[in-house]
Structure formats: C-alpha cells, structure tokens
Amino acid sequence: LKSRFFRPPLETTAMGKGGKSKGKDDKGKGKAKGKGKDGKGKGKGKGKDGKGKGKGKGKGKAKVIIEPHRFEGVFVSKGKDDSLVTRNMAPGESVYGEKRMLEEAAEGEEKVEYRVWNPFRSKLGAGIVGGIENMPIKPGSKVLYLGGASGTTVSHVSDMIGPEGTVYAVEFSHRSGRDLTNMAKRRPNVVPIVEDARQPQRYRMLIGMVDVIFSDVAQPDQARIVTLNASFFLKNNGWVVISIKANCVDSTAAPEAVFAMEVDKLRKDGCKPKEQLTLEPYHRDHALVTGIYRASKKKKE
Fold this sequence. Notes:
The protein has helices at about 1-5, 125-130, 150-160, 175-185, 220-235, 245-250, 255-270; strands at about 10-15, 20-25, 30, 65-70, 75-80, 85, 100-105, 110-115, 140-145, 165-170, 190-195, 210-215, 235-245, 270-280, 285-295. With about 300 residues, the protein is α/β, with parallel strands linked by helices. The radius of gyration is 27 Å and the shape is globular.
C-alpha cells in the first residue's frame, strides 16, 4: 500500500476488457476507453491506480451573481471581475465572440443566459460603464440605430429592449450589412436596413415613429444626419444619443472644441442637449452626447 503513494509517476498502459487505459498513476488524468480495471469511462481517471478528477484543487465552477444595473435591461455580473452584461435574446449564440454566462436558477426554473458587454467594442457600453446619467433605451423602446456596422452594439440594444421593443439598424456598407442581417435572423426585434443614413426618405416606409435615435456614424456632418432622421422618425420629446469621434469631424481642432461645435449644431436644429460624457479610456477622443428633440417647454406655475 505504501509503495503506491511513494512511487514516482510512471506512464502506464493497462489493458482492460475491450479497451486501453492510459493514465498517470498518481494524478488520475487517464483517458480510458471501454471498462478497464484501471480506468472507467473517459478521462475521469477513477481507477485503482488513480484517484480524483481533473486538476485536484477541488474548486467548483466560479459562482456568478447577476445584479440589475440602475438602467433597465442592463445587468452587472459580480464575481472574480465585475462586468456589464445583458440578457441574451438568442440563448446559446455569441455575436462577436463575447463570453456568455448562465445564472444559477432555483429548481424548476429555467437558467437565464447573459452576454458580457465589452466597453472597448461598443460606444454605448463605454457610456454606461463611464456612468452616463440617463439611458433612454429600455425594455419596450423603439430605437433607430444609425451606423449599425456588424451588429456588435445593436445585439446588446436588442437584448436591452427585449421582445416588446424594436431596433431599426441602418448601415451603409454592404459587407457589414451582411453580418448585421445574419445577426438579425436570430433576433426578431432587429430590423436591418442596408441604406444611406443621409437619405432617410429611402427607408421611410420601413420605420414608424421611434422613441430614441442612437447614432454612431463617423461622418463630418453627423449632427445634420441625426437631426434629418429625427425630423422624419423621432417623436417630440424623444431622445437623441450620439457618439462623436473628434478627429472624424475635424482632425486639426482640439477634441473639446469639436464636441462643443457639434453640440451647438444640435442645439440649432431643435435638440436640447442634456449631457456630454467622454468615453476615455475605452475610446480615444470620443464623446457621448444625449439630448431631447423638440422638448416641450415647461409650463410656469
């Protein structure tokens, strides 16, 4: 018996009934096919020579605690490292290779799957992590998303608004539009539109009135594009959320000056700016600006 514990680990090959079992004697990481004396099942190493499963530290799967964020439709996973997550509308599928996690459910309940929202890949995600004050995108919202690209952020917006809401994602590039359309196949609340956001009259028949316009089109005339779309589709007192890339508007001016200039343009076009937030350190020289379109004047009492 003693010799079993003090032997140096040797590679052994034991022949069982109808199968071979290769395993290290002490660690018991054997691959066993068939039912041999030394190994039962595949890779469990439960034989006479090897005890224990796997790596031997005996720690179970790290527990994930999901807590609701202060914004509806967004959650925070508390664990080894906290991260922003959204409830997956298409369980079992990642859109851009992001991590998925299952919340431990009580008996009889279905497990809920969440997707990690990487702020480095998404301007809206960076804004939420950065502590933006208001988030008009919530369950049941109708959202017009300009500059949908491959659908990275669009998929998270789709998770946030849930089955009751709709996100109309406009993307001009056919290459990105293909990825966007493929993503939308699994998400019934996403309407992909491969069209130029500068000409909203081309897709006016596809979109009803919306509650929020989110824009991530890196164009010099972004403010004009947004307010033009707002005049077609945005309700009075609807929200506008714009991601501004400074060096795309004017690469010679200081970022702060560019942001101020864009906010001024929005103000002239009937949008009342509410907040401006830098997206550092996630996105360099970017800012997120929120505002209310055609805000109704407060009545004096």
